[in-house]
Design a protein that fits this description.
The chain contains eight helices and five strands, in the order H-H-E-H-E-H-H-E-H-E-H-E-H. The chain is of the alpha/beta class. 34% of the residues are buried.
């Protein structure tokens, strides 16, 4: 398999991802799930994703669709399309699978995948993380990973505009 195919094979739809997760689960792999917009990939994202990946064996990243980002962040976002954002994420060694979700939250995706570990960034608490209740109820764990200070997509966009 060439390197480009290795990247694009990580980007998948939900039915295919559920099939892969079931296979990983039979192998005893611990699945970590995280999600976000990941509009302009920066050092803070990479640090966060590497730390999330270290919590288990497989890192699955849910990515907000373009329509979802517009509803959540306004018509000027996303800067990068969902195809570009998923490609960037899939190119990272620490990421094993990437799946776009259309809803404003990843709740349905989390319920379909039932990850062992749900990870989110430091601006959340366990009580405010979408899907935390489901993961905990099903015997999983929820981890909050501290942010790297000084890295924010919004602040990058503001610096570019000024």
């Amino acid at each position: 398999m060439d390197k480009l195919q290795w990247i694009t094979n990580k980007i998948t739809d939900l039915p295919t991802l559920v099939h892969r997760v079931n296979g990983w689960r039979t192998l005893g792999k611990q699945m970590v799930f995280t999600n976000g917009v990941f509009d302009i990939l920066h050092r803070g994202h990479i640090d966060y994703l590497a730390k999330a990946a270290s919590l288990g064996n497989i890192l699955i990243v849910g990515v907000n669709s373009d329509a979802s980002v517009k509803r959540l962040k306004g018509n000027e976002r996303p800067i990068n399309s969902q195809d570009d954002r998923t490609f960037h994420l899939a190119s990272l060694l620490c990421v094993d699978a990437v799946c776009v979700f259309e809803d404003d939250t990843p709740q349905k995706l989390i319920e379909n995948l039932s990850p062992n570990i749900l990870a989110k960034g430091g601006d959340y608490t366990v009580e405010t993380i979408v899907g935390a209740e489901f993961v905990l109820k099903n015997g999983g764990k929820v981890e909050v990973i501290p942010f790297v200070k000084g890295y924010s997509t919004t602040s990058f966009i503001e610096r570019i505009r000024s």
